[in-house]
Amino acid sequence: MTFTRAATSTTPLLMDVDTGIDDSLALIYLLASEDAEILGISCTAGNVPARQVGINNLAWLELCGRSGIEVALGAEVPLLAPLMTTEETHGPQGIGYAELPAPQSKFSTRHATQLWIETARARPGEVTGLITGPLTNLALAIKLEPELPHLLKRIVVMGGAFNHPGNTTPCSEWNVAVDPEAAKLVFDAFSGLPPERQPVICPLDVTETIVMTPQHLARLAEAAGSSPIELPGPDDAKGLRSQTSNPLVRQLIDAVRFYFEFHAEHEQGYISHLHDPFAAAVALSPGIAETREATVDVELTGTLSRGATIADWHGLWGRPSNAQIVTRTDPEAFFNELIRRVGDFARHILAE
Ligand code: RIB
Ligand code: CA
Q1: pLDDT in tens, the chain (352 residues)
Q2: In the chain, how many domains are there?
Q3: Distance (Å, whole) CA 300 – CA 184
Q4: Using CA atoms, how far apart are residues 122 and 71, in angstroms rounded to an integer?
Q5: Is residue 30 part of a domain?
Q6: What atom in ligand 1 is closest to the CA of residue 275?
Q7: Fewer CB within a 10 Å sphere, N or C end of the chain?
Q8: Is the full-model pTM beyond 0.90?
Q9: Pocket around ligand 1: residues whose beta carbon is below 6 Å from it?
Q10: d(CA 158, ligand 1 centre) in Å
Q11: Looking at the domain assignment, is residue 93 inside a domain?
Q12: What spacing in Å lies between the alpha carbon of 132 and ligand 2's midpoint?
């Protein structure tokens, strides 16, 4: 499992996010990656409402000196389901305890579906879509441009749970649970593509092995040359703010502390599952993940099972495959790379 190094080649990426604490870390990871070319960010309602998702992305981009990246607002509600958000998980604004200055830059004049379609048409076969939120915008874009799966190089999706419990209902994962109809439409649209063009799905089965601890944050601060080196802990006052010197590390610690507290309050320990940054790393370096081909579909009508992602590993449905499901990775190799990239990047963020 190897991470692609910078400067050899870059991956043109379109992000579709519901920022969110881990979506924030995914964005920072990509901004810190010289092998990532972020073509735009599509904002979907999910963890928080779509407009707040957009504000969060504009604000992180300004903090990191990358305000030129296009941020397009998309669907405010799912295709059919009533909108549900989860401020209790990600904080009232979706970035935990981080407090970013209100952004000066503006949203794109394009709708997120236009961003998807026009970006893919402009660079046919080159663009990787990275979806770390509900699939509403991509589904709407496919409805407008059915050729989109063939125009994209591929998509990487953080979502679903296969041989693993859900995190939103007992059998459904958040990004799919928010908009099951969208997820089904997207997976169906990739049916029959060759394996190398099929969606790479990063399900909870693997993303819940990407366990960030306070020690990882301390290592990140050290890599960024930030001081003091802080070690957040469950005995800290709730909402304690970081005093470390580096502005990006400080905001990331404040964001992740909220996530530590949430996971601890839900009997998962004082840790954070870094679902989205892992999917971002897979988008740049597919070789870090082992995958298995399957036909994936989404339960829409189950009384208890709506939003469940089902994988047919053995062709029992007699349908063509449509997904490469990540089954294994090396979490510590991922954290070593995240700390290396983001630590180096943070060193160059000018003090506020
Ligand atoms: O289930 C985890 C996913 O749902 C992550 O993308 C998190 O940000 C939320 O969107
Ligand atoms: Ca997300």
Answers
A1: 677 655 578 999 999 999 999 999 999 999 999 999 999 999 999 999 999 999 999 999 999 999 999 999 999 999 999 999 999 999 999 999 999 999 999 999 999 999 999 999 999 999 999 999 999 999 999 999 999 999 999 999 999 999 999 999 999 999 999 999 999 999 999 999 999 999 999 999 999 999 999 999 999 999 999 999 999 999 999 999 999 999 999 999 999 999 999 999 999 999 999 999 999 999 999 999 999 999 999 999 999 999 999 999 999 999 999 999 999 999 999 999 999 999 999 998 765 4
A2: 1
A3: 8
A4: 17
A5: yes
A6: 5
A7: C
A8: yes
A9: 18, 20, 22-23, 46-47, 132-133, 158, 167, 173-175, 275-276
A10: 7
A11: yes
A12: 4
Residue range of the domain that includes 188: 11-349
CATH number of the domain within which 301 lies: 3.90.245.10
Shortest CA distance to 144 belongs to which of 189, 98, 193? 189
The whole-angstrom separation of Cα 338 and Cα 287 is 16
Domain membership of residue 5 (yes or no) is no
Nearest CA to ligand 1 atom 2: 174
Alpha carbon distance 11, 213 (integer Å) = 29
Which residues touch 30 (CB under 8 Å, ≥6 apart)? Answer: 13, 15, 36, 38, 130, 280, 284
Region at 96 (left for phi over 0; alpha for psi -120 to 50; beta for the rest)? left
